[in-house]
User: Fold this.
Amino acid sequence: MASTIRVRAVASGDNTEVQALVQHPMDSGFIKDAKGDLIPPHYIEVIEFQHAGKTVFTAYWGPAVSKDPYIKFSFKGGRKGDDLNISWVDNKGQSDSLAGKIQ
Amino acid sequence: MLIAVAAAALGAQAARAAGTVDPQADFKAFRAYFTKRFPNVPLNDFVNGPYSMDAGLRKQWIEIDAFPPYQFALDKGKQMFETPFPNGKTYADCFPNKGIGIRQNYPYFDAKSGEVITLDVALNQCRQRNGQPPLDYTKDDMAALTAYMAYTSRGKPFDIKIPDDPRALAAYQKGEEYFYTRRGQLNFSCASCHVQSAGEHIRTEVLAPALGLVAALPIYRSEWGGMGTTSRRLTSCNSQVRAVPLKPEDEQYRDVEYYLSYMSNGLPISGPGARP
Amino acid sequence: MCRFAVIRLAAAALLAASATAAFAATADDFKTAFAKTEAANKAAAALKNQWTTTADALKAARAAAAAGKFDEAVKDAQQAEALANASIAQAKEQAAAWQQAVIH
Assistant:
């Protein structure tokens, strides 16, 4: 099955700039469906980016983050060809991960 | 003198009303109006809607477009497009040029049925011919498919034809009438926002000009948290002015898409788009 | 006629009118009002120009009638009829008026 994570990591000099788009409903639990029933909460709780065995970025998300979240950040280090691993876990215990490469 | 001026005005009105439908004259006037009103917007930039009107919004859009929110729909659309039907045929078999790079030719006037056929309708006709159930016209799978097809046409100029057929001219004029007719309890026409107030704000949104309005469809709207087609936009606009929406594939909607697409002839397809 | 007499007559007429309105509407009253409303709504639909607020008022009228609140139901039905008629007037006026908005 296709990954829920799309990533684009570009190294330039000392820094690596990372952009990622994650496919996830990010239901807050406050919205009602067409029938009037509450859509149960279903959102990513933690997303982590790892490079060379170290966590370079962690985000604690929750119901305030909208559907299909987009994230952008940069970290020191990283060179073209390096691995960049991304993983997330949501409140239902579901998870996904991606082994990306720095361009 | 006042009477003479009034008479002249009445005469001009009468000339417009009683005259034959002249899409080419309409096209020229429409284009001149927007280019004159927004002299600093390059012609092809009109297809970017609010981003051609507001620098701050544009900056955000350029950042977003580096990793566009319609990406998932686009990937899904490509997969759907390339997956054969149970009978072995594919969407490619229904369309000229195997369905690639053809979006800019829609809608077209179909002489056989005497109706305007949009890309969405053509896709469902294709599905029907191959024993498949129709897709919902407003979002999800239909939006994914048309997102892919629009993507293969990115940059190609709109090439909408109005054949020398009184029925086609009638459809064009009905579309023009729909665009300018006030409706709903709030008494807005499409023109109220997209001509009169183009570039201005409605609440927090910047209104797109009518020129190039349909070039970016289907769009991912942050407001929707998802994709939407022309039908979705038209039906939601209707409800927003407190008019009961028509069926998504209603003839009136197809006619107004025909009119707006013709008015955008020569402008590049910019879809699938991302909007606030 | 003496001015005060006119005023007293007008006041009496007003009182009489409000007194009539104060009589509880019956199911039949609602049926009559609703039939008129539905006819207007149908005409608006034929012109493809219904308002969402008309639909809401109609829904409210039906709900009130179902709950036996006929006064409210008649009021809602009349509101819906007014809205439907306004939408019909809008469609008829716009049929000619749209031309004036066209860019030329």
The interface with chain B takes residues 2, 6, 8, 19-21, 23, 66-68, 70, 72 of chain A (CB under 8 Å). The longest strand of chain A covers residues 5-12.
